[in-house]
Design goal:
The chain has 214 residues and is an alpha+beta fold. It has helices spanning 9-37, 164-168, and strands at residues 49-59, 67-72, 80-84, 98-103, 109-111, 114-116, 119-120, 122-124, 129-131, 143-146, 172-174, 180-183, 192-196, 212-213. Strands 1, 2, 3, 4, 7, 10, 11, 12 and 13 form a nine-stranded antiparallel beta sheet that branches.
Length: 214
């Protein structure tokens, strides 16, 4: 029998390196797992903004504060039915045959017996509400997006449990030029991104700076 002894230096060095590599691999795997478990921060590209054309609006038969609008947003299956709590802010005449910006991938909701399948985007302050106005030449169905996010496809439908809209909406506002913008203080680039279209046009409200846009 050969006497039991310590491994030679070369073998010891090899064993140390193997142990070190295993430890590093385990650390990297744990870091990756933690990253995967962390909820992904929502991006404004997940929201399906489009130009819509209100073909007709009526008062909701069972809710004094709601209009029921038929809005063309470019869907092949035809226009959508949209309920909006705008009776206090716009006359019925002001709701007819006009272009607006529409959020198209919120989960449909029943509003006093009528299923609403989209939302009209407006800017507001303490005293008034104004439509976000599409630029001249807009067509129903035109894609609308914040600068830097135009190449990404929006989600088919936002998952209400993940509260994507609720997390993003507080970052929507208007600047001094009344343009709708997105500003995230945690954005490394610190950019203020304008709401725009494929032509690079901006989308504005009539008179409210620093508006709450929703």
């Amino acid at each position: 029998k050969q006497p039991k002894g310590k491994p030679d230096e070369e073998t010891l060095k090899k064993l140390r390196e193997e142990a070190k590599a295993k430890k590093a691999a385990k650390k990297a795997a744990n870091a990756q797992q933690q990253q995967q478990q962390q909820p992904q921060k929502p991006k404004p590209s997940q929201i399906d903004f489009r130009v819509g054309f209100i073909q007709k609006a009526i008062k909701h038969p069972d809710a004094d504060s709601l209009y029921v609008s038929t809005i063309h947003v470019g869907d092949e299956e035809g226009p959508r039915t949209v309920c909006s709590g705008l009776v206090k802010h716009f006359s019925l005449e002001a709701m007819q045959e006009r272009y607006v910006v529409v959020v198209c991938n919120l989960k449909p909701v029943n509003m006093r017996g009528i299923k609403s399948t989209a939302m009209v985007l407006c800017g507001s302050d303490e005293s008034k509400v104004e439509f976000v106005e599409p630029p001249a030449g807009s067509k129903a169905g035109d894609k609308v997006f914040f600068e830097g996010f135009g190449d990404e496809e929006p989600a088919k439908q936002l998952n209400p449990k993940k509260k994507i809209w609720e997390q993003l909406q507080p970052h929507f506002s208007t600047n001094e030029q009344l343009e709708v913008v997105f500003k995230d203080d945690e954005d490394e680039e610190k950019k203020v991104r304008k709401l725009t279209n494929a032509k690079g046009d901006s989308f504005k409200v009539a008179s409210i700076a620093s508006a709450n846009v929703r």
